[in-house]
Every structure is written in C-alpha cells, then in structure tokens.
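Data availability excerpt. The first of two example chains:
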Amino acid sequence: MRFSINFPKRPIFFFLCSLPLVSCGTQQLKSSDFTEAFAFTKGIEGPAVDGKGNLYAVNFKEEGTIGIVNAKGKGRIFLKLPNNSLGNGIRFDRAGNMFVADYVSHTVYKVPKGTNTPLVWVREPKMNQPNDLVVVADGTLYLSDPDWKNKNGKLWMVDPEKKVILLEDNMGTTNGLEVDPSGKFLYVNESVQRTIWRYQIRENGRLFDKTRFMTFPDFGLDGMRCDEKGNLYITRHGKGTVLIVSPDKEIIKEVELKGKKPSNITFGGKNGRTCYVTMADRGCFEQFRAPYKGAYFRKE
C-alpha cells in the first residue's frame, strides 16, 4: 500500500519495555539487501513465495507488473496486469494458484498455476481499494480495503464459490492482515490508527469475538505474516523495523531494516526461515533470518 500520511517520529520505548518477558537489551536482528536498490519501483508490495521457492512482488521495473526473483536476487517481469491495473497484495493457495489484489479496478485476479495469465476472480465496485489479502485452506479469501482519503476502511471475504461478502464497514484504514497457523484467528491492522485487531474465525469463514490485539503510539503499520509458532511479524512503516510479537503480545525481537518504509513481508528461502521485506523507499527486497519458518511455507 502507499502512504500519504506523515507519522510523527516519537519513541516507543515505553511500549516496548512495558510488556512482560520483554528484554529491551536483546540483541537486535538486522537486514541485508536481497535485490539491488530500485530494481522495483517505489510501489513494490505484495511479496509472496510459490512452492518452487520463487519470490514475487508487484511493480518490477514499471508500474502494473509483477516481478519474479530467483534465489540469487535477480528479477524479471513475470506478467503485466491488464486494463491499467495496479497490483498490491499477492498470495498463493494450496494448489499453487496466485491471487492478486488490484487496488485500481476493485478486482482480485487469479493466475492459475503454471501460467502467467491473470483472470478476473472477483470484481466488486463497492470496494474502495483492495489492498492486502490472505487465502485460507478451503480457498476462502480475506481482503483489506482502505479508504486513505477518509482514513477508514472495510474488511471483505470471498468464499470458495466467489461470493463477495462485506464482513465489516467503517473501520480504520485497514491494511495488513494474516491468519494464524491454527486457522482460528484473523489479524487485521489499521495503519493510520496504528491498531491491530484479532478476530476468531467460524467454520463458515465468518468472524466473531473481535478484540484489540495491540495499539502503537507512533509510526504506521503495513503488511504482516505469521511464523509456524503463531508469532506475528509486523512491518513498521516509517520506523524501518519489523516487530515480532507472540500470540500473547510478548515482543520477541525488533528487526532493524536498512530503509524506513517497509510495505510487506513474506517467508521463503531453503527452509522457510528467510524473511523477505519489500521496501517502498528503496524499491527493493531486504532479507533477514527468522527464528522459525513461515506458517504457510511449503515446498512442492
């Protein structure tokens, strides 16, 4: 997603050091470059890894593209989206199909496995700007849908029969979202309000028991992912870090990035323990070694 709001740069030491079992002196992880700077545009977003280990993100070299990056960090254009579309979030289902949220034409594209042809999966004119998405085991999609101008947003579900369902309206600026590895909880953050919500998921995909998971005093929130232990990795837009938080809200690590505007994160590498972070201010991927592999990392 693309921020148009400047966040105040106030310290958050009282937040980080006040939670139980947090050591503010813990050795901090640091990232390194995986691709060269500005191999992608500043619109780089939607990192995702397929079953063969290929890494993808939107806007490689030019807007409206999806790039594919090999294990050595070298990229090329994988596809161009039709109709002046601009992709944002990317996810793969268990069958290896790619899904892309297009925030221009209120569309989600499906790219069938083994092809590079985007097909319209759903199109919903009532959406503001489809942003991030997650695909669960039965093929259900959840979509964040921010309205940056008015600082609010929506949350959508697309069931396996492609029925589009509005789950919640009048939220804050919905952005990053993730389902935990148990499949029981959905996390959604609101970037401008700096709040993360956690919902329980019913068997039919509907949500209940919405609770406030975390609120931050400063800096923005963007993409999120879970590792296999259920720890949440939160990109802090403007601060230039990734915060790793347990399901019990205990801060495990804060990863220092080279850039200041991480837009999203995914897991990959040989054993699923490499985190790849898209950097909007540097037009590239940074990487770091995670304590555990990603919740949805799979090799064919």
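And the second chain:
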Amino acid sequence: MSRSSRTRSARRAAITVALASAVAGSLLAATTVSSAAASQKGGASQTKPTVVLVHGAFADASSWSDVIKRLQRDGYPVIAAANPLRGVNSDAAYLRSVLDGVHGPVILVGHSYGGSVITQAAAGDPDVKALVYIAAFIPNVGESAGELAGKFPGSTLGETLNTSSYPLPGGGTGTELTIKQDLFRHQFAADVPAATAAIMAATQRPVSTLALEEKASQAAWKDIPSYALVAGQDYNIPPKAEQWMAERAHAHTVTVDKASHAVAVSHPAAVTDLILRAARDTR
C-alpha cells in the first residue's frame, strides 16, 4: 500500500472514531436529560396526592366536573370513580380495586352514599391520608345509610322516589330507586340552574335498595383524619344528621348554609377548598 493510501485510511479511521465518540456522547447526554426529566416528573407526581372522588346515589361522576377542573388547575391528579350503587360491600370492593391502581398517597372524597363506600373501602389502607365527606353519610360499624338518613327529621326523599326491578347476577331480581324527574330539582339540586338540574335528572344513576340498607362493617374514619361539608338546605340527608355524624367522627367541618344536596355542582369552590385543606394538612 502506498504512503498516500495509508494516510487516507488513517484519516478515515480517525473520522470514524470521532463520529462514534460524538454519537455516544450525544446518546449519553440525551439519556441523562431524559432520566432527569423522568425523575422530575416522578418527583412532581409525588408532591401532591391523588384525589379520588366517589359520587353517591342519583348522580354520576360528572357531578364532580367543576371540582375536577379546580383540582387539576392546582396540579392534583384526579380520578372520579364510577360507583356501582349496588351494595356497600360490593361497591367498597370495587373502589378498593380502583385504589390499588393508584401509586402514592390518596385523598378519598365521598358524596352522599359515596361516604358509606369510602368509609368501608379505606379501612386498613395506609395510602389513604384523609377522608372528605361532602353532604355524606359517615356510618359507624353496624349502621346503614337509610338508618342514618332517618335519625333526624328533614329528609323528603321517600316522597319523590320511583322503584323498579333489575336482574341480579345470581338470579332473581333486586329493587332500585330513582328520583322522579319532575321533582328532582327541588329534592336534589334546588340551588342548581334549572337546565343543569334537568340534565342531572335525566342522567341520574339508580341506587339499589340494598345499598341503602346494608350495614357498614368497617369505619375507616376512626383511624384516618376526616373532613366534612354540611349542606345547610339538604333534603336528602338532614343537615342535623350530617353535622351529628361529622362531630362523631371528629371531622374538620364546614357548613354551606344554603347549599342543596348537590353542593359539588352548586358550590364547587367550597368543596374544592375543603379537599385542598385535607391535602395540605396531611402531607
């Protein structure tokens, strides 16, 4: 091989080594940046707990829409679970399966009958840092939602209900309840605009009578810090019952004097403020 050929070969080899070094350096830099970004992302996700929202009877997860917007705006991850409304034990088991898919701390929020469900589902879960009850049942072991609703006068729910049958998975039929659409706004959402209340009436989820009759077998509020919002003009759960349950649970309590049972729809800022307080207090 001539000297010029050897020189050209040496140059090509040097260029190849330089390019390989440059590519390796770029890959290393990119990997470092990606790892740092992932670390920051992971750290950010862990700085705030996940808020899990559980709706109650005669509602669906969309009832939390304005609360969700506010929480997400403040950087909180949010899950609005679909509550089956079929029985405290089975609904709590379903909610536990949702919680099992959440990594890190949780603020668990229940509205109405959803309070019964979170009280059962959170028992023994170290990741649930606070329970927030929004115009909700806070049962003790051996108590049902129906029993607690009748503990104080003031509920007019029974007068507004339709009943119907539905097939049970193991055979036979169960009974479920809905609120008559023409009475829905006054009963459930008196402080909600009429057009919104009409949509809520049309999309309401029926609740099984079993869900309201089944007794709680766990009471997570005995071990987990609790917060409660009392709706001052609630015709489903008497406000006196909400206040009594909150006091028994030693819950940090706020009252929205003129709020209907649909307080998360009519007063989303007050509901969000209480959730944020729970999140801050339990960091």
